[in-house]
Amino acid sequence: MNLGILVLVAALILFGLLAFKQINALILAPLVTIFVIVCSGLPILESLKTAFMPAASDYVTSYFLVFFVGALFGAVYQHTGAAESISKTLAGLCKGKFVAPIIMTITGILTYGGVSGFVVFFVIYPIALNMFKEANLTRRLIPGAISAGCWTWSMYGPGSPSIQNVIGMNSLGTPSTAAIVPSVIATVATYILIFVWLEMRGRSFTKKGITFNDTTLKFQLSPEEMAMDEDKDLPNFWIAMIPIVAILVAFNGFKLPVETAVFLGVALATILMWNRVKGLNAWIAVFNEGAANSGVSILNTAIVVGFGGVVKNTQGFADLVELLKTLNMPALVFVMITVAICAGACGSASGGMGVAFNALTDTYIELGANLEHVHRIATIAAGTLDSLPHQGAQITLLGICKLTHKEAYFDIFVTQIVIPFISCFIFIIFASMGL
C-alpha cells in the first residue's frame, strides 16, 4: 500500500476517533481535511478555497431545499402530534408481541413518508420505552430497532423521498423507483432479516433473564422518564396519514420534484391539523424550529462533503480508485465498495454518497452498467459503513436512550451494516439477471 493511500486510511481512522469523542462536524471536517492536505503535500489555503469550499457549497446549492422542507415537515408532525398518533395506533396492533420489530416498522413508515430521522428519534423513543416496559423487554434493543427503521429499507427503498435517493436521481438522471424489481426484492429482504433478527434477539435476552429492569445498565431511568401521558389528545390516525400518502403520490405518481412534493405535504399537514397548534405565533415557532434544524443538518453534511472534495484531489485517492479497478470486480461491486468506503469515512450516508458521486460519477458511467442499477446499489451501500460507531446519528440516539455503545451497538452493527451488505449482494444477484 503506497503512502498516499495510507494517508487516507489514517484520515478515516482519525475522523472516526474524533467523531467518537463527539467533536462537532463543523470543527472535525476542516481539521481532518487539513491533515490530509498537509500529508499529501498540497497547498493548504488554496486547497481549502478551491476544493473544500466548492464541494461543500455545491452540496448546499443542490440539496438545501430538500433538507429545508423535510425539516419543516418533521417539525409539523412532531408538534401537532401526528407522528405520535401514527406510532401509537400501529403500536396498538401488536398487543405486546413483536415489540422491537414493530418499533422498527413504525419508524420506517414515518421516514419513508418524509419525516426526518432525527425527529423520529425523539417522537418514537418514549413510545418504544413504554412498549418495551409492558413487554418486559430489555432496553438494549431500542436503539437498534429505532435506527434500523430510519436508516435501512425506508432510506433506500424505491420511491423513497430520502436525500440518498435524490442524490442518485440528480447524479445519474434516473427515476426515484430506479431498478424497481431488484430494489423491491432487496428492500423486502432487508425488512424481513431485520424483523427476524430483532425478534430473535429479544427472545434470547428474555431467555437469559435480561429484561426491562436491567440493573447492569450504566444509566438507570428516573420515574419521570418512565411515565407517559396515555390520555394525550392526538390527531386521528387517518388524518395524520394523509400528508404522508400525498407526498409519496406526488413524488412517485405525478413525478413532482421531491422539494415540491414534501412542501405540499407540509402545507396539507398544516391545513388539516391547524387547530393542533395554538395560534399563529405558535405555528411560526414550529416553522422557525424546522428551519433552524434544516440549517444545522445540511451544514453538518455539506462540511463533510467538503472533506471529500479535497480527498478526491489527492494522489492517494486516484491510486485507490485505480487499485480497485485493477481487481477486475463487477461494476456494481465496485460502486458498492467505493460508496460504502466514502460513507464510512464521512459517518454519513448522504455525505458519503455526495462524496462518491462528486468524485466518481463519470467513472460509474464509464463502467457501462445499467445506471438504474448503479443508482440503487449506491443508495443501499451508503447505508452500510455509515453506521460505524463514530456516526453522529447513532451517538445522538444512544444518548436519548441512555445507553452506551457497549450495551447497544451490537444490534445496530448487525441491522445497519451486516444486513444491508447482505441486501447489496441480494440486489446484485437479481440485477445481474437483467431484472
Automatic annotation (TrEMBL):
<dbReference type="GO" id="GO:0015128">
    <property type="term" value="F:gluconate transmembrane transporter activity"/>
</dbReference>
<feature type="transmembrane region" description="Helical">
    <location>
        <begin position="137"/>
        <end position="156"/>
    </location>
</feature>
<keyword id="KW-1133">Transmembrane helix</keyword>
<keyword id="KW-0472">Membrane</keyword>
<feature type="transmembrane region" description="Helical">
    <location>
        <begin position="236"/>
        <end position="254"/>
    </location>
</feature>
<feature type="transmembrane region" description="Helical">
    <location>
        <begin position="60"/>
        <end position="78"/>
    </location>
</feature>
<feature type="transmembrane region" description="Helical">
    <location>
        <begin position="290"/>
        <end position="311"/>
    </location>
</feature>
<feature type="transmembrane region" description="Helical">
    <location>
        <begin position="176"/>
        <end position="198"/>
    </location>
</feature>
<feature type="transmembrane region" description="Helical">
    <location>
        <begin position="98"/>
        <end position="125"/>
    </location>
</feature>
<dbReference type="InterPro" id="IPR003474">
    <property type="entry name" value="Glcn_transporter"/>
</dbReference>
<feature type="transmembrane region" description="Helical">
    <location>
        <begin position="412"/>
        <end position="433"/>
    </location>
</feature>
<keyword id="KW-0812">Transmembrane</keyword>
<feature type="transmembrane region" description="Helical">
    <location>
        <begin position="260"/>
        <end position="278"/>
    </location>
</feature>
<feature type="transmembrane region" description="Helical">
    <location>
        <begin position="331"/>
        <end position="357"/>
    </location>
</feature>
<dbReference type="GO" id="GO:0005886">
    <property type="term" value="C:plasma membrane"/>
</dbReference>
<feature type="transmembrane region" description="Helical">
    <location>
        <begin position="29"/>
        <end position="48"/>
    </location>
</feature>
<protein>
    <submittedName>
        <fullName>H+/gluconate symporter-like permease</fullName>
    </submittedName>
</protein>
